[in-house]
Amino acid sequence: MRAVIQRVEKARVVIDERPVAEISKGLLILVGVGNNDTEADADYLAEKTAELRIFEDDDGKMNLSVKDTGGELLVVSQFTLYGDVRRGRRPSFTDSARPEKAIPLYEYYVEKLKQITGTDVKTGVFAAHMHVELVNDGPVTILLDSGKLF
Predict the structure, then answer these.
(1) Considering the domain boundaries, does residue 45 fall inside one?
(2) What Å distances lie between residue 65 and 3, 9, 57, 72, 103, CA to CA?
(3) By C-alpha distance, which of 98, 113, 129 is closest to 34?
(4) Does 22 fall in a domain?
(5) pTM score, whole prediction
(6) Number of domains the chain is built from
(7) Tens digit of each residue's pLDDT (9 = 90 or more) over 6-62
(8) Residues labelled catalytic
(9) CB-based burial of residue 40 (10 Å sphere; 0-12 exposed, 13-18 middle, 19+ buried)?
(10) Residue 19 sits in a domain of what CATH number?
(11) Closest alpha carbon to 27 in 2, 48, 5
């Protein structure tokens, strides 16, 4: 599984000009599921996300996690994180899991995040055309991959 994690002042998902999910200070997490991903990948990614120390402490050092700060979480599915552009100019998405596999793992990841952080996790709508609005704080953007490719 792959994730793009952004520390945000606020973020929201809009579908057909209607807001469907909104958070204030916390993390916007774009998540992609790959063909070979399992619940173990989702466990790794959820734990890493929840414990990632990218919020500033009283000394201005990135030393606190979203768990520590009580920040909010917004998770948005994004199969394009598995887009392969090594050949040509049009991305190939053959490494991205099909919905019948991706949806359960995505939902498992969200539930795992809820358990670890003890907070509600807002989500976008899987496979919907969404507009994601955010105010990136820092900016701080972190890439995670359960295969530890980066």
Answers:
(1) yes
(2) 16, 15, 10, 11, 26
(3) 98
(4) yes
(5) 0.95
(6) 1
(7) 999 999 999 999 999 999 999 999 999 999 999 999 999 999 999 999 999 999 999
(8) 80
(9) exposed
(10) 3.50.80.10
(11) 5
